[in-house]
Amino acid sequence: MNSLLQDAARAGASVGMAADTITITGGTPLNGSVRVRGAKNLVTKAMVAALLGETPSTLRDVPKISDVRVVRGLLGAHGVKITDGDEDGELILDPSAVESAHFAEINAHAGSSRIPILFCGPLLHRLGEAFIPDLGGCRIGDRPIDFHLDVLRQFGAIVEKLPSGIRLSAPQRLRGTKVELPYPSVGATEQVLLTAVRAQGTTELRGAAIEPEIMDLINILQKMGAVISVDTDRVIRIEGVDRLEGYTHRALFDRNEAASWAAAALATEGDIFVAGAKQAEMGTFLNVFRKVGGVFEIQDDGIRFRHPGTPLNPVIIETDVHPGFMTDWQQPLVVALTKATGVSIVHETVYEQRFGFVDALIEMGATIQVHRECLGSQACRFGQRNFQHSAVISGPSALRAADIAVPDLRGGFSHVVAALSAEGASRVSNVGIISRGYENFFEKLTALGANFTLEA
Predict the structure, then answer these.
(1) Which of 50, 225, 370, 387 could in theory staple to 93 by disulfide, Cβ–Cβ 3.0 to 4.6 A?
(2) Which residues are catalytic?
(3) What is the CA radius of gyration of the chain?
(4) Could you write out the DSSP letters of every residue in 335-403?
């Protein structure tokens, strides 16, 4: 079994998925309601932040996804006691007995996640050492950890590369520093925040990511006792403190999952109410959704997304860091754009290898060309590096069934949506990886009226 199959099977098994292949009969609109809970890109980092506190933390609206299971296992391996609260989706994290974990335990839990790199700062503060195994995650582009290690060195950490992974130590208290990011990386910003809050002195981070999930992590750290200010020019300043307490926090909703179901409504000519979705964090997506022709209604407890009943419009999209159009939104939306009348262009500027998923769409009858050139308003950092990072989608295309394999989290959701909108029965394998970011995925498909069967 290759590494992709292993990752998919492991991810699905961790949340109780009994099958890793689904047969979908397309042609039925998705209609009904689904609920989104806390954002995958926030809750896992919030769980890590609990390591920094001297008292227990309570995190609410935690989804049952495999990435949460991975972090829960890693925290448990380091001595954090985690119990379920009285409320569904509530976790209580007690870090009072934090200890070093054997690398074999870390490896056992971290095979399908890149989250261990963010354990380093908190563990260096608590224990004076940390270990990082080989890192996994979705294969959508270059995500080097060298920058993370360089940042930790700036704080005063000693980095040793070993055959089994990387060991970090801090013989003395970490010190505040000045960091300037060459690109507003979410992961690098999280690394600085989680390390700087208990470092001695002040840390200045320039070129920071300011995604809503980053701001919610800052909210959590401030609740714990951190002193953090955010300027309008992507500069974050953190004044280190000697002690942090636990927090009580309800996680920000998952805007990526909300956008995915919105795109599914368009692609299948359906009508989906996404309970828990909020307008403020989805403004950029909502503008594009409306330009494509989609109809949405903002309600107090969620957003209703539906197909207009008329032909969809082509659009030009450039992905970007917040407040731009998120890279995680483009893959599901590309499926809907195959139904639009005319030529759409998607210029991907965040991950250089995010268009691998379109091969399956082309096999299903979509007319999509991928180019190395920057087909957008301006050149991006991938333009001179020979990466296929612009897609031209011509439509409308009548998709037909095919046997396809899921390549990554968002691409996998997109493949399922393509199968749901196609004529005939498609067989989609490696679906376990979808459980990394979508809670109760099959149950939600059933609630929306999807026609599918699971293979044992």
Answers:
(1) 50
(2) 138
(3) 22
(4) HHHTTBSEEEEEE--S-TTTTTTHHHHHHTT-EEEEESS--SSS--TTTTTT---EEEEEE----B--E
Q: Return the residue matching tokens 């917040």.
A: 322
The pTM assigned to this predicted structure is: 0.92
pLDDT in tens, 152-164: 999 999 999 888 7
CA 197 to chain centre: 24
Q: Kindly provide the b/e burial profile for residues 337-366, where b requires at least 16 CB atoms within 10 angstroms of the residue's own CB.
A: bbbbeeebbbbbbbbbbbbebbebbeebbb
The per-residue pLDDT for range 185-241, each reduced to its tens digit, is 999 999 999 999 999 999 999 999 999 999 999 999 999 999 999 998 999 999 999
| Chain position carrying tokens 């989706």 | 89
How far apart CA 395 and CA 369 sit, in angstroms, is 12
Contacts 24+ apart (CB under 8 A), 411-415: 411/140, 411/331, 411/354, 411/356, 411/357, 413/260, 413/264, 413/331, 413/332, 413/438, 414/331, 414/332, 414/334, 414/335, 414/357, 414/361, 415/357, 415/360, 415/361
Strand partners, 104: none
Distance CA 104, CA 236 (A): 36
What tokens were used for 319? 């992905």
Q: Is 413 helix (H, G, I), strand (E, B) or coil?
A: helix
Residue 249 β-bridge partners: 59
CA distance 37 to 63: 6
Cα 365 from Cα 361, distance rounded (Å)? 6
CB 47 within 8 A of CB 93: yes
At CB < 8 A and 24+ separation, what contacts does 96-102 make?
A: 96/54, 96/55, 96/56, 98/51, 98/123, 98/126, 98/127, 99/127, 100/127, 100/129, 100/131, 101/74, 101/77, 101/131, 102/77
- Residue 7 token pair: 């990752």
Residue 16: DSSP 8-state:
T
In this model, does residue 4 exceed pLDDT 80? no
CA of residue 354 relative to chain centroid, distance: 13
CA dist., res. 157 & res. 125, Å (int): 10
Closest CA to 345 of 370, 309, 362, 322: 370
The percentage of the chain sitting over the pLDDT mark of 70, rounded to a whole number, equals: 90
Q: Which residues contact 146 (CB under 8 A, 6 or more apart)?
A: none
Residue 379 reports pLDDT greater than 90: no
Segment (H or E) for 94: strand 91-94
